[in-house]
Amino acid sequence: MASLYRQILNWLDERFGAGAVEDFLRHKTVPIHRHTIWYYFGGMTLFLFVIQVLTGILLLLYYRPTPDDAFESVQHIMTQVRFGWLIRSVHSWSANLMIFTAFVHMFSVYFLKGYRKPRELTWITGMLLFFVLLGFGFSGYLLPWNTLAFFATKVGTEMAGAIPVLGKWLLVFLRGGEEVTGATLTRFFGFHVAVLPGLATVLLAMHLLLVQHLGMSVPPGVERATAEGRATARVMPFFPNFLLRDIIGWYVALGVLGALAAIFPWELGTKADLFAPAPAGIRPEWYFLFMFQTLKLLPARIFFLEGELVGLLGFSLAAAIWVVVPFLDYRAGFGRVTRFFTGLGIFALGFIVAMSFLALW
Amino acid sequence: MATADPPQSAGFRPGRRWINLLLGSGVVASIASFIYPAIRYIIPPVVGESPSRSVVAAKVAELKRNTGKIFKFGSRPALLVRTADGEFKAYSAVCTHLNCTVQYREDLRQIWCACHNGLYDLEGRNVSGPPPRPLETFKVNVQGEDVVVTRSA
């Protein structure tokens, strides 16, 4: 068995240098220290992304992206197609868990200063991937064409329209017209199944190549302890040792997804009616709740600006700072931890959690 | 060895610069001509709004006192309210905050937006919550059995 494997490998090696691929895989090691657990969340996000691609392709076999058919086709998937309820519920649950693990991955990298030199580009490609994931979430939410999604899309695109100068153009571009209509559904479908997957593939390839090339980041505290001789630097090979541990996690995740889909199948709601009032208790997906709640609390006018514009500018500014934080916190590149940036992270996390809970009350 | 440049190349240099400039601007212009239609394609054509300035929103008998009804006015939703006094009032149903569709709250006797908890009074004025501007109001005429709503000029 082992010799057959060797024979195949040798055959491939003679043709394109398969040994180089193996060397490439064996090149990466994973540091072992008390924060090692956080290294699993990137891989988990990637695994859930693969689940999204696979279940998404399956949903495409039956989904129809027009305002007359979209809701009915999802209903058909949920009630008529064998295991349709499972595929669609796994797609929805996996999407939400993926956003959650991406949040965990992002904040753990932030607090462990994984973004510092030379990993600035890894952080930036990661942040762009995160925005792409939010785009997937926002565009995918509309596709079942139900009431909640219809109003969430109205509000979300209206916010884009509030951006100075470019806003109007952006609103028409996103909606495919002045209002949220069937044209919007067609566009969002295109974004969801073509534009965003293309972007995600390119960004993901860059992100993974950078991680592979630079190796895993060791937190400054652990680095210092090793340098001062208080701890010894231990590593394990990524391939196969860490990957096998990853796979155990993925296997469990698959079980959790199946259980969630079976016990809590994703709701469909009522079909969107363009001429019905927004229903009471309307709110966006949980990962947009903190923005939703902030908009709700902001007064109509702050000085001479409209409240929504102030909120939008605030969030844009915060996101921009978050993306370029490796360059602002350049001292971290020398292994120095600046309290300010740790505090900023705690504030951001606290704000998101507090506002989300407030929205659920 | 270092001076091995063919002697005529010095004479060609200004010409080459010209050729580079012409080729370069040609390439840039052609790329612009490829991209321009694509950008224009992305922006959808404007579909003319329905020219009618007035619409029959409801029958008089349809609405009880202290109730409201959403009706279609052109391509947008609008709200017809019959107040507790029996008077008819009409507004745009598009919330001035973030574009949600408002509704009449019989318990508050006010117009409410469920999305971010905005409130308007029966004159359409934004009285609480995040809406920055009042709702657009329309003229209402009762013609026989019909309640006719007209956009003011």
The helix content of chain A is: 55-70%
What is the CATH topology of the domain at 31-271 and 280-286 in chain A?
Cytochrome Bc1 Complex, Chain C
Strand content of chain A: under 5%
- The secondary-structure element order of chain B is HEEEEEEEEEE
Q: Kindly state the number of beta strands of chain A.
A: 4
Quickly list its features.
heterodimer, A: mainly alpha, Cytochrome Bc1 Complex, Chain C, two-stranded antiparallel sheet, 3% strand, B: 153 residues, alpha+beta, 2 domains, 6-stranded antiparallel β-sheet, 23% helix
Structure notes:
- The complex is a heterodimer of chains A (361) and B (153).
- Chain A has 361 residues and is mainly α.
- Chain A has a domain at 31-271 and 280-286: Cytochrome Bc1 Complex, Chain C (Up-down Bundle), CATH 1.20.810.10.
- Helix content of chain A is 69%, strand content 3%.
- Chain A is built from 15 helices and 4 strands.
- Chain A has helices spanning 2-16, 18-27, 40-60, 70-79, 84-111, 120-142, 147-161, 167-175, 182-214, 220-227, 238-263, 289-297, 307-323, 325-328, 339-360; strands at residues 29-32, 234-237, 301-302, 305-306.
- Chain A has a two-stranded antiparallel sheet. A two-stranded antiparallel sheet of chain A has the order 3-4.
- Chain A is globular.
- Chain B is an alpha+beta fold and 153 residues long.
- Chain B is 23% helix and 33% strand.
- Chain B has one helix at 8-42, and strands spanning 54-59, 67-73, 76-82, 88-92, 103-105, 110-113, 118-120, 126-128, 137-143, 146-150.
- The radius of gyration of chain B is 31 Å and the shape is elongated.
- Chains A and B meet through α7, α8 and α12 of A and β2 and β3 of B.
Which helices and strands, and how do they pair?
The complex is a heterodimer of chains A (361) and B (153).
Chain A: H1 2-16, H2 18-27, E1 29-32, H3 40-60, H4 70-79, H5 84-111, H6 120-142, H7 147-161, H8 167-175, H9 182-214, H10 220-227, E2 234-237, H11 238-263, H12 289-297, E3 301-302, E4 305-306, H13 307-323, H14 325-328, H15 339-360
Antiparallel strand pairs in A: 1-2, 3-4
Helix pairs in contact in A: 3-5, 3-11, 4-5, 5-6, 5-11, 6-7, 6-9, 7-8, 12-15
Chain B: H1 8-42, E1 54-59, E2 67-73, E3 76-82, E4 88-92, E5 103-105, E6 110-113, E7 118-120, E8 126-128, E9 137-143, E10 146-150
Antiparallel strand pairs in B: 1-10, 2-3, 3-4, 4-9, 5-6, 6-7, 7-8, 9-10
